[in-house]
Amino acid sequence: MRKGTETLNTASIIQSILKRIVYPRHFWSGIMHQRAMAHTARVYDDSQLSLYAEILPGDFLNLGHFEDPGLQPQDITLRDIVRAQARHAELVAELIADSTSPVLDVGCGMGGLIRVMLAKGLSPVALSPDRNQIRHVRAKYPTVTIVETKFEDIPLDEHIHRYGTIITSESLRYLKLDRALPLMEKLLKPGGRWIACDSFRVGEERSRSGYVWADFERRMVRSDWRFVCQRDHTPNVVPTLRFVYMWGNDIARPGLRFAFRKLQRKHPRAYYILEEVIEAINGRLDQNLDLVNPDAFVAHNKYMLLAMEKTS
Fold first, then answer.
1. At the fourth CATH level, which superfamily is domain 1-312?
2. 0.85 exceeded by the pTM?
């Protein structure tokens, strides 16, 4: 009985390690998308936020902006990723035209952009429905006003025409434009600006995530929004994707194969019990690597930095 218990405990430990360390979904998917995950059922706990904060000390969870698009993944370090993420936030903040009115950061994530705005003497307001994100931001930036709700549920009577700028940094794809566009107009002061950065789908459809760029562009024109800034930063986010793809393909995949073979050899009964789980982990690894495949991303997506104002 004791031997069987040890076998199951060993299998559980190996499975946990694979999922939390070797399997990139828990780490890299969180880095790139955790800001927007508040709009889904997935919830990240405080320990994961703390882990991201220690590894990426700038509190950024964006795709970054590399000035050298040709940088190869083997030449990139985590420090380079942090610098690229900080540069991304700086580019967003540089588009803020009204320096005296509050700035609403929709889907504030861990608050990296909040920190950049505070350093510029701006008055950011953090919005997120995720309690763990809010707890992290409140502890890190105690002077910042926080709105704990979904963007669509913000109390209009308290916020109408309050903001000179609204920012949706990698959270635009989770907003429903039918509700978001009229709300943007009501929350912004006359002449206010909406800044957005996100990936958009182009060409044939590969994923339901995000808006088709041509459709979004036409929708904005029909809704009397004009683009005052329209920059394609796709080449500048590709180095991050290359790095993530290399990490998953060259480290996670061989690590999984090694761990599974070792489990099969040393604990065949546990391997048999977990065989379907192992197949599912391999399948999810393939799916996640497909999402960050840099060549596929460039072929089917474009990453845009936008600033928009109402024409009437």
1. Vaccinia Virus protein VP39 (3.40.50.150)
2. no
